[in-house]
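Thread: Modeling a multi-component assembly for a lab meeting

Hi all, long-time lurker, first post. My supervisor asked me to bring a structural picture of a complex we are working on to next week's group meeting, and I have zero experience with this. I have the sequence lines for every component (485 residues in total). Could someone generate the structure of the whole assembly? Inputs are pasted exactly as I received them:
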Amino acid sequence: MPVTQDLTPLGTAFVLLATLILPLGAVQAAQRTRTPGAMPNLTSMLRSLLIQQAILVALSLATARAENVMLFPPPHFGLPQAGMAAAFLAVSLGTVPWRWASRTPEQKRRMLWRIPNQPSDVWKLGLIALGAGISEEMFYRGVMFQLWQHVLGSFWGSVAICVAAFALAHAFAGLRAILIISVMALASHLIVRSSGDLYTMMGIHAIYDVLAGIMFWQLARRDGLIPARPIPATEEGAS
Amino acid sequence: MNPAPGPSDIALFVALTLISALLDWRWLYPALERASAAGTPGVRVRFYSLGIAWEWVFTAAVIALWLAHGRPWSALWLAPPTTLRAVASLVVAAGGVTMIWMQHRGLVAGDMSRARRHLTGAEAMLPRTSSERVGFAALSVTAGICEEILFRGFVPWVLAAWVGPVPACVLGSLLFGFAHYYLGQDAAIRAAIAGALFTCVVVLTGSLLPAIVIHAAADLSAGEIGFRMFTRDIGQESQPAAPAEA
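Re: Modeling a multi-component assembly
Sure thing. I ran the full set together rather than chain by chain. Output:
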C-alpha cells in the first residue's frame, strides 16, 4: 500500500490547478474555438502566451519552495542524454509529415494560428517554444509530478495523472493530437527519470516546438493554405 | 488526525454524491424542463423550494452527525479563523465578488449572446418573474452555504479517509461537477472547474466563508443575468416590428 502524504495549502492548490482547473479549462476553450469565427494568430497570441508561461514559472517556483521540491539539481549532460534527445526528436519530428497528411482540411485550418505564417514569425515561435520548454517542463514534469509522487507514492500513478493533465491542457489541438501528446508526455517523463533532471527535456521540448512549427509551416505553404510570400501591408490596406 | 467516517457518513455521502445527482439528472430536472415548456404555472418556484429544502436537509444531517460524534468543526473548515486568515478570507471574498461583479456587468451590457452561452442547459431553471427572481436568490444563498459545507467540507472529509487529503480535494471537485451533470456536459465541466477553484480558496484561506460568499455571488449573478435575458426577450417580442428601411 503506497504511503499517502499531505501537502501544504499552496501545494494542494497547485495540484488542483494543474490536475483539474487548467486541463478542464483547456477542454472548454477548445470547444469554443471549434465554433466558426475569426482565428487568432501567432502575433496576437504572443503576449498572452508569454504571460501564461511566466505565471506557470512563478507558480512552479513558489510551490517548489513551499514543498521543498528540488527543481534544479546540478546538471549532467553526457552521451546518454544526447542519445535520448536524438531518439525523441527523430521519432517525433519524423512523424510530422504523416501527421499533417492525415489531418482533414478543417483540422489543418485550425492549426494555422499556432505555426509561423511568414518568415518574421519564426522568432516569435522560437520565443514561445523556449518559454514552453522551460515553463511546461517545470510545471508538469517538475513540480506537478513530484507532488503527485509525494501524495501517491507511485511513479506510474503519478505519470498517468501528469500525462492526462498535460494532454488535456493541449485540448485545442484536437482529439488525435491529445493521444499523440500523451505518448510524447509519457516519453518525456521517462527521459526526465533517466536523465535525473529537467534540463535535457527542456531543451528537447523547445527544439521540438520550433522545428515542428517550421515543418508544419512549410507543409501548409506547400498545400496552399499559407501564401508563399506574405501580402505587403500596403496591399492589405488597399484591398 | 480526523476520526474515520462511520456508516451514517458513508450513507449520507452516497445519497449526496450519487443518488441526489442521479435523481436530478434522470428525473427532477427533465420534469422541470417538460413543465417549463408546457408553461405550467409556479413550476420553477416549486423546483427552487424543493432544492432549498433538499440542500438544508443534507446540511442539517451533516451538522447533526458532527454534533453527535463531537467532531472538530475544523474538519469542515468551519472553525473560527485566526486574525490573519480572517483578513485573508475577507480579501479573497472581496476580490472574488468584485471579479464576478465585473463579469456580470460585462455580460449584461452586451447583446446577451455570451450570457446565453454561459447559461446553456440551465434555461429551464432561470427566473422569469419577480417571485421567481426572489426564489432563485434564496436558492443561490442556500447553494452558497450548503454546497460549500457539503462539497468542500463533508465530501472531501469522507474521501480523505480512503484516498488521502489531496486526492480527496481533486475527487471532491469532480463529484461537484457530476452533481451538476443534469445541466449538461458543459455545465458539469464548468462546475468541476468552479469546485476546484473554491477548494483552492478554502485550502488557502483555511475557511469556508470566502468560498460561501463567492459561490452565492456567482449563483445570484447567474440568476440575475437569466432574469434580464428573459425579460429582454419578452420586451423585444412585445415591441412592434420596426418598419423596413428603404
